[in-house]
Amino acid sequence: MLDRVVAGIVPPKHHIAFRSEAGDLRYEECLTRAGFDGPYTIAYHERRPHEHRLAEAAHGFALPVAAPARPLAKRHYRSQDLPRRGGPAVDCRVPLLFNDDVVIGLVQPDAADPVYFANADADELFFVVHGGGVLRTMLGDVRFEQDDYVVIPKGLFYRFLPDAAPQRWLSIEAADIHLPRKWRNEVGQLRMDAPYSHRDFRRPTFVGPLDEGIRALVVKRGGAFHGFTLERSPLDVVGWDGAVYPFAFPILRFQARVGLVHLPPDWHGTFAARGALVCSFVPRPTDFHPEAIPCPYPHASVDCDEFLFYCRGNFTSRRGVGPGSISHHPAGVPHGPHPGAYEASLGARETSELAVMLDTTRPLSATAAALAVEDPSYQDSFIARP
Question: Is 262 considered catalytic here?
Answer without folding.
Answer: yes
